[in-house]
Amino acid sequence: MADRRPMIAGNWKMHMTTGDAVTFLEGVAAGVNEDTGGEVVICTPYTALSTVAADIEKKNLKIGLGAQNMHWEETGAFTGEISPLMLVDLGLEFVIVGHSERRQLFGETNETVNKKLKAALDHGLKPIFCVGETLSQREAGQTTEVIAAQIKEGLEGIGGDLSERLVIAYEPIWAIGTGKVAEPEDANDVIRHIRALVGSLFGVDTAQKLRIIYGGSVKPDNVAKIMAEPEIDGALVGGACLKPDSFLKLVNY
Ligand code: 13P
Fold first, then answer.
1. What span, in angstroms and rounded, lies between the C-alpha atoms of 39 and 24?
2. Over residues 218-244, mean pLDDT
3. CB-based contact 223:250 (threshold 8 Å)
4. For residue 24, what are the contacts with CB-CB under 8 A and spacing of at least 6?
5. pLDDT digit string, tens, across residues 106-158
6. Distance in Å, CA 76 to ligand 1 centroid
7. Where does ligand 1 bind, in terms of residues with CB under 6 Å?
8. CA distances from 91 to 9, 65, 68, 138, 190 (A)
9. Which residue CA neighbors atom 7 of ligand 1 most closely?
10. In the 8-state DSSP scheme, what is residue 79?
11. 207 class by beta-carbon count within 10 Å (0-12 exposed, 13-18 middle, 19+ buried)
């Protein structure tokens, strides 16, 4: 079994002004640099990225930084969009791609997600590639099939060793922001399926090294149980990552 470095990633979604972001970093500075052996990432709104990047550097914090979305083109007439070049320009390491809120509220499809994943990888950004089923898909027994399509179509035409360049986040849509966390064993089973699929597409070695994390109502009081599952390599956290004390409890689970 490959040694996969655990990752706790906070997705701030549409929260935090630049002032809030600086206050947050003050609040976590003392606790975030403890060496837990894990990787800590925050994905902030675009507007906070450069302030947060500068503050992470100034305070010498062990926090990786990411955006929550991007367009696939480098430049062009795409009003309101942000390109991979712009994210690289800020020195970012990560970008969330295909979050269910982007898919459900902003019309992203497996095809646009594929373009974004290709562009992110081409620019040396590490995508946190989100997949997950709706409640009705789960109840209809379609979880595996839906996720397989998201992964196959999302990673279509992408090659090379992805193990250090990509993170997959399994986020069942019915568990996001609802307080209904997936049973850790169930999430572990789905992630085992995802790993097997990645193995069939990219080889067993890549699949064993690739990190696959879980998201959906992860909180300080359930994180340890989730992280104890053998296939689950980390957590992508929304609501519970916004307050310093809660974030530090997650990071130091
Ligand atoms: P919550 O942790 O608020 O359920 O959000 C999960 C999520 O969507 C992270 O990307």
1. 18
2. 97
3. yes
4. 16, 242, 244, 247
5. 999 999 999 999 999 999 999 999 999 999 999 999 999 999 999 999 999 99
6. 31
7. 11, 99, 171, 176-177, 215-218, 236-240
8. 17, 9, 15, 38, 33
9. 238
10. T
11. buried
State which ligand 1 atom lies nearest to the alpha carbon of 99. 10
Q: Is the pLDDT of residue 1 over 60?
A: no
Ligand 1, pocket-test mutation among 7, 8, 11, 101, most atoms within 8 A of CB: 11
Judged against a pLDDT cut of 70, whether residue 80 lies above it is answered with: yes
pLDDT band at 179 (very low <50, low <70, confident <90, very high): confident
Q: What are the start-end ranges of the E strands in the chain?
A: 7-11, 39-43, 64-67, 94-97, 126-131, 167-170, 211-215, 234-237
pLDDT confidence of residue 35: 82
Q: What is the pLDDT at residue 90?
A: 97
14, 236, 242, 246, best to mutate for ligand 1 pocket (most atoms within 8 Å of CB) = 236
Token look-up 């994390």 returns: 213
Instruction: Tell me the pLDDT of the chain averaged across its residues.
Output: 96
Q: What residues act catalytically?
A: 99, 171
Q: Which residues contact 96 (CB under 8 A, 6 or more apart)?
A: 11, 43, 66, 67, 68, 69, 127, 128, 130, 169, 236
Q: Are 193 and 132 in contact (CB under 8 A)?
A: no
Domains (range + CATH), the chain: 7-251 (3.20.20.70)
CB-facing half-sphere around the CA of 193: CA atoms within 13 A: 18
Could you tell me the distance, in angstroms and rounded to a whole number, from the CA of residue 2 to the centre of ligand 1?
A: 27
